[in-house]
Amino acid sequence: MALLLDNQFSQLPSTNEVATKAFLDSVSHLPPFFASCGQRPVGSVLWAVSCGQCPVGSVLWAASCGQCPVGSVLWAASCGAASCGTASCGQRPVTTDEGLEDDQHCTVQQQMSYHCLGSKVFAPIKADISGNITKIKAVYDSDPAKYETLQKILEAEKGIYGSEWPKAGATLALMWLKRGLRFIQILLQSLADGERDENHPNLIRVNITKAYDQALKRYHGWIVQKVFKAALIAAPYRSDFLKALSKGQEVTEEDCLANVRQFLVNFTATVDAIYEMYTVMNAELDYTV
User: Fold this and answer.
1) For residues 62 and 15, which has the higher predicted lDDT (pLDDT)?
2) Regarding predicted confidence, which is higher, 232 or 18?
3) Is 103 exposed, middle or buried (0-12, 13-18, 19+ CB in 10 A)?
4) C-alpha distances in angstroms, 166 versus 19, 98, 172, 207?
5) Which end of the chain has the lower number of beta carbons within 10 A, N or C?
6) Residue 105, pLDDT above cutoff 60
7) How far, CA to CA in Å, does 60 sit from each of 54, 67, 90, 111, 228?
8) How far apart are CA 199 and CA 191, in angstroms?
9) Facing residues of 48 across strands?
10) Number of other CB atoms surrounding residue 236 within 10 Å
């Protein structure tokens, strides 16, 4: 699974402080994880990448944003004929649960190599991760010595923003970013643990659902939750997903999952350390979007 091991997260020091530069270098390679490989397209699902406004009069998904009423990423579902932001798509007729007709290609963001999760389902999470990485990097680049660790960013911004903190700056961006990272961690751990739907062993919906329920669901309103559930039909097959993790190479499932477990060691420790930091500094917010 060179896709993840090529950019392994660093082992944390005994203090559990997370070095900002090393963290950003590793996490910046994760957005391709959320693009299109092995995708199973769904009819009349449109994606709208915008900055808070969308003319589509159907269901809107404000995914993991927190900066505006409807979020920076909108999902316009069950529309079939709309245009918003940079996204465009034609209708994709559905045949059966195991065989979906693919008659048109939908582009949400620029294509990346070795994509793993269908962009129709996870483009909002991918876009949110990318956007929050950019915000944190901008703060770090403004003074690398001052913001050497993620802990120092939060401590400095607490003084800078006063009563607006923690719902401001890189502190807010990292709060949402860690939730996306937790989603990835739980999904990969579930796969590594062999959890699957015995009735549909080549589907990963049970793994995706577990990750969403534990990492993101509590921060989403009922519209987001309903649309997510409806979109699970577009999730990739287990075999396609694992092959994408191996960069298309023919490796055994056990070898691939062994690499997943290796990647998860430092990745999980890093995510846990960030969550602990937010708890200790009383920086966690519990509002929904």
Assistant:
1) 15
2) 18
3) exposed
4) 20, 45, 6, 31
5) C
6) no
7) 8, 16, 18, 23, 11
8) 16
9) 74
10) 25
Give tens-digit pLDDT for 72-104.
Answer: 333 333 333 333 333 333 333 333 344 433 333
Instruction: Report the pLDDT value the prediction gives residue 228, as an integer from 0 to 100.
Output: 83
CA 38, distance to chain mean position in Å, is: 17
Amino acid at 266: N
Please state the three-class secondary structure of the chain as a single string: CHHHHCCCCCCCCCCCCCEHHHHHHHHCCCHHHHCCCCCCCCCCEEEEECCCCCCCCCECCCCCCCCCCCCCEEEEECCCCCCEECEECCCCCCCCCCCCCCCCCCECCCCCCCCCCCHHHHHHHHHHHHHHHHHHHHHHHHCCCCCCEHHHHHHHHHHHHHHHCCCCHHHHHHHHHHHHHHHHHHHHHHHHCCCCCCCCCCECHHHHHHHHHHHCHHHCCHHHHHHHHHHHHHCCEHHHHHHHHCCCCCCCHHHHHHHHHHHHHHHHHHHHHHHHHHHHCCCCCCCCC
Tokens representing 64 are 């993991």
Confidence band of 124 (pLDDT split at 50, 70, 90):
low
- For residue 286, pLDDT over 70 is answered with yes
> For residues 235 and 121, what is the distance between their CA atoms, to the nearest angstrom?
7
In order of 13, 225, 280, the CA distances from 46 in angstroms are 44, 17, 40
What is the dihedral angle through the alpha carbons of 219, 81, 88, 242, rounded to the nearest 10 degrees?
60
